[in-house]
Amino acid sequence: MMFSVTEMQTFELFSVPHISVLLMFVVISFWLVYFRHFLKRYQPVLKWTLFWMLVLSELSWHTWLVATGTWEVGDLPLQLCSLSTFIAIYVFLKPNRKAFYLLFFIGFLPPILSMVTPEIAYQFPHFRFLKYFLHHAAIAWSVLYFIVYEGYRVPKRAVWTGFLMVNILALPIFFLNILLDTNFFYLANPTESKTILSFFGEGVIYYINLEIAALVVFFLTYLPMGELVKRERVKG
User: Fold this and answer.
1) Is residue 7 domain-resident?
2) Among the listed residues 116, 163, 135, 122, the one whose alpha carbon sits nearest the alpha carbon of residue 52
3) Burial call 172-194: b when 16+ CB within 10 Å, e when fewer
4) What are residue 89's phi and psi, to 5 degrees?
5) Which of 18, 43, 99, 112 has a 20 to 30 Å separation from 195 between CA atoms?
6) What angle do CA 166, 59, 123 make, to 5 degrees?
7) Residue 146 belongs to what H/E stretch?
């Protein structure tokens, strides 16, 4: 039943299961930061647990789609969450600070916002529900891991370079959406279910709001990082 295509499509925004997973995400995030000195001894365990959570989330998702005969071209791993997943996997395997700059901006706050207003129809304990929240949580936790346990920092100028990079990536995706009739990066239209993007309007206004929202998200994401860098400079 938890792997059914047609059953358990009763997801309700801010229902008990939804609020519960959000609270669990907050608690575990706090635990990773507050108990970092104790958990430092288990850093390899944390690293490879997060790594395999990302890999298995992506693989299990496509395996389920193929097994149920529901895979479509629109399921190609070209959404922001998949891009964040691949960048995080790459950084886990081959440390790269410039790659982390982009991951920091698209792999922390956006997955959290996606968990708050998820594009999902299936309710707990369906596979899609579990995979969706575990996957998005793992992306955000990976960003936390790199900052807290491996000392990654992001310069302020990366706000603009990251924003530029996302726009460069979005350009071919925009034309690919037209060619394949898909909605990667949600550039063709907002999500089908009720999410933050549903309030962005239509046509040109939709794209203007997307750009504004991206900049706001980038700056909001950088605020705690900027404060962290400033404090570390004061301490020398």
Assistant:
1) no
2) 135
3) ebeebbeeeebbbbbbbebbeee
4) -60, -45
5) 99
6) 90
7) helix 127-148
Contact call for residues 142 and 148 (beta carbons, < 8 A)? no
Number of structural domains found in the chain: 1
Residue 25 to residue 232: CA distance in whole angstroms: 27
85 neighbors 57 (Cβ within 8 angstroms):
yes
Q: pLDDT digits over 203-230, tens only? A: 888 889 999 999 999 999 999 999 999 9
Which domain range does residue 230 map to?
Answer: 16-235
Residue 2 belongs to some domain of the structure: no
* Range 128-154 average pLDDT: 97
Indicate whether 10 belongs to any domain: no
In a domain, residue 108? The reply is yes
In this structure, are residues 185 and 173 in contact, taking their beta carbons and an 8 Å threshold?
yes
150 in helix, strand or coil? coil
Residue 213 class from Cβ within 10 Å (0-12 exposed, 13-18 middle, 19+ buried)?
middle
CB contact at 8 A, 129 and 11: yes
Cα dihedral 22, 77, 158, 199 in deg (nearest 10): -60
Cα separation, 48 vs 205, in Å, equals: 42
Interval 14-61: pLDDT, tens: 999 999 999 999 999 999 999 999 999 999 999 999 999 999 999 999
